[in-house]
């Protein structure tokens, strides 16, 4: 079982985040993530908050072991050609440890305040579907190429008709939040989509994000039985690494 941590960029400082991701990397964690939003998702809506991709560049430079990425990038915030170039550049900063996490977006305040078209969930998913080939095509044209020849794509979400099909068609990692029973069902449907599109399901790493209160041996085992291969601990500041240390001891 791989273990990761997602560091929330809200109600914190850049100094605190840098200390946290350096500490996690030194602990031997497999992956370090942040999220791609412009405002806090919980607590005081006017609290401090930092932008995702600028943080990821610093994270890539500060660490040397873990994969780094956004859990997940809200696709419609950036031109897909530019996003591909941003991802490739951070990949080089990290010396090949970057994962391009992608989702269709959902937090309406981000869209309204930054002037993006919110639309409907289906419309945002259609934009992601159209953008994935654009990202992959631009990656092939960039000079220099990504360090390892390509950058792994993670897709997050639970939509069974469209999102999981996109995972089967394009992704090397799949992420979902939810109880083990729901997670196991998503994995089952993902495997069915893999069969339909002719993809080997073993090519897709199955990740799940959990919260500190969920760090118990029973839940760890339940996710393992449900098919999870990579557990990511969601963590807000002040960043306490005790739960991460516990997860790493079970790895």
Characterise the protein shown here.
This protein has an eight-stranded parallel barrel with strand order 1-2-3-5-6-7-8-9, surrounded by six helices. It has one domain: TIM Barrel (Alpha-Beta Barrel). The chain has helices at residues 14-26, 52-62, 80-93, 108-114, 121-141, 163-170, 180-197, 217-226, 242-250; strands at residues 2-7, 31-34, 67-70, 73-74, 98-103, 153-156, 173-177, 205-210, 230-235. 44% of the residues lie in helices and 17% in strands. The model has no long low-confidence stretch (mean pLDDT 97). It is α/β, with parallel strands linked by helices and 251 residues long. The chain contains nine helices and nine strands. Strand 8, helix 8 (217-226) and strand 9 form a beta-alpha-beta unit.
Q: Tags for this entry?
A:
251 residues, TIM Barrel, alpha/beta, single chain, 44% helix
What's a quick, concise take on this entry?
This protein is α/β, with parallel strands linked by helices and 251 residues long. The chain has helices at 14-26, 52-62, 80-93, 108-114, 121-141, 163-170, 180-197, 217-226, 242-250; strands at residues 2-7, 31-34, 67-70, 73-74, 98-103, 153-156, 173-177, 205-210, 230-235.
């Amino acid at each position: 079982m791989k273990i990761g941590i997602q560091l929330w960029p809200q109600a914190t400082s850049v100094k605190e985040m840098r200390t946290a991701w350096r500490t996690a990397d030194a602990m031997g964690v497999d992956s370090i993530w942040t999220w791609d939003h412009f405002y806090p998702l919980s607590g005081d809506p006017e609290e401090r908050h930092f932008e995702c991709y600028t943080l990821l560049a610093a994270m890539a430079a500060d660490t040397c072991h873990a994969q780094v990425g956004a859990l997940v990038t809200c696709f419609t915030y950036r031109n897909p050609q530019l996003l591909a170039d941003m991802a490739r550049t951070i990949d080089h900063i990290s010396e090949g440890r970057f994962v391009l996490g992608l989702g269709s977006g959902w937090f309406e305040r981000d869209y309204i305040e930054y002037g993006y078209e919110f639309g409907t969930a289906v419309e945002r998913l259609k934009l992601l579907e159209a953008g994935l080939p654009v990202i992959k095509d631009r990656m092939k044209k960039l000079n220099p190429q990504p360090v390892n020849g390509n950058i792994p794509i993670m897709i997050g979400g639970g939509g069974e008709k469209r999102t999981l099909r996109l995972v089967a068609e394009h992704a090397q990692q799949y992420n979902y939040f939810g109880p083990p029973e729901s997670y196991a069902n998503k994995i089952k449907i993902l495997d069915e989509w893999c069969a339909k599109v002719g993809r080997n399901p073993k090519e897709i790493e199955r990740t799940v994000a959990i919260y500190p209160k969920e760090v118990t041996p029973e839940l760890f085992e339940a996710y393992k039985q449900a098919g999870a291969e990579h557990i990511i601990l969601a963590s807000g500041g002040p960043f306490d690494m005790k739960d991460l240390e516990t997860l790493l001891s079970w790895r």
